[in-house]
Design goal:
Layout: H1 15-45, H2 49-67, E1 104-105, H3 106-129, H4 133-149, E2 157-161, H5 164-168, E3 183-186, H6 193-209, H7 215-234, H8 239-242, H9 247-250, H10 256-270, H11 273-287, H12 302-316, H13 320-333, H14 335-344, H15 350-354, H16 357-364, H17 366-384, E4 390-392, E5 395-397, H18 399-413, H19 438-441, H20 454-457, H21 493-504
Antiparallel strand pairs: 1-2, 2-3, 4-5
Amino acid sequence: MGREGADETKSFKGWFLRALVFVLVAFVVAVAVYTILTYFHLRKQASDHNHSHAILNKYTDALEISLQFFDNGIGWRGDSGLLDGEDANLDLSNGMFDAGDLIKFGFPMAFTATVLSWAILEYGDRMNAVKQLGYAQESLTWITNFLINAHPSANVLYIQVGDPEVDRGCWERPETMTEEGSLTQINISYQGSDVAAETAAAMASASLVFKKIDSSYSDLLLMHAKQLFNFASTYRGSYSISVPQVQKYYNSTGYGDELLWAASWLYHATKEQSYLEYITKQNGQAFAGWGSPTWFNWDDKHAATQVLLSRVNLVQMKHQFLRTLIARYIGKLLRPLSVVFDQTHQLPHPTEQRLDMDYTMELTSAPCGFCIFLAVLYSDYMLTSQTETLYCSGNFYKPDDVRKFTMSQVDYVLGENAMKMSYLVGYGSSYPQYVHHRGSSIPVDAAPGCKDGFKWLYLDDPNPNVAQGAPVGGPFPNVPILIIGTTQCEPTTIKQKPIFDYLLY
């Protein structure tokens, strides 16, 4: 498969498609985690021990590969951005590029940290069982160290390293890049409640991860989380307005959901009733959209906030109105499932139902990838609270119904699809060879300048370096192939996260 579609790349580089790619990765990880746990349970019941052991190994291998996308230990990777932040006397050498480019976008990076923390908190024991917990914690620390240093004072937060307009004009390895890492900040004059609150959520959730491991580090994270939340709530405004150049990349449609999302995590981290009242009494009606949540992605946390709060509602039996609303939302997520169930009285088969491209987009789009993660989380909360069924569109679903459906989705991503291809690079015998990723496409011994590297992008040969663990977006509707050079083949950290979470579940 050659590079003839590369010239079409620019038309696909909008922020929506970046989000699409970002979340699909999280989709596979989340399903893998979920699936491993399920098979631990199934192995006890299975009559064919060898078969179930092989299945467990399948998802364990996928989980290990997916985590390598965050890991600098891959041989062809090296140090980069060591001077990031120097102009402001800060050390911003940690953190992650969001995708195949060389920009550190704080908004999606913080979101990745929040959801990674959530996965560790819910399924850390399962990660530990397959010897991946330490790697997940190291990846999280790599982000949170950046976020800590990016917050040098109470009302200042650096939200971006690098100029995306300059970056798009270059194609070079991060280890040898020549463009400077220019800095962008928000403050009381240039507000960014959305990105500040998301960063607060990341810090608060991570503080829970490290609470028993490193109490001092946990306390530091929580201090930053509280300061950032106060900053976000006191000086309200969208970073897309204050910093309009971000609109082409990670545009924010509002900040109310991030404020509630951050308050929810701070409530879980501190148990302080004021944070819960901030949501349920002071700001819920204005920001929550309790009855009409939509997707869950780096820009929209309404649904995730409700599911996170349902942990309190279901387990502690508080706030019945929220419990009713979140059950209605989970039912909405399962509507495509209920349609198939009505027709066949069976759960959808991944390959059969994937032939319907509209249905495919419903289930594999970036927002929906995280939504399925919310559904499986909620099914666990149902089990914990001994809630036996969920009613939706005339059908009753048990937690196990959601689990089986989730497993079918990760199987699709790992190769049970029309292309017979794994969308997780490095997994299986057939996976994308032309990943839209600078480090993967340029040989290790090459050091091209800003413009010289494009010759590697347009070569007909496969990438010389395998982007191990990178998730790609998969086919577009009515186009059952991967178009080279588009965001279909561009891995991102937000795509990586759902994949990791599913594999855990």
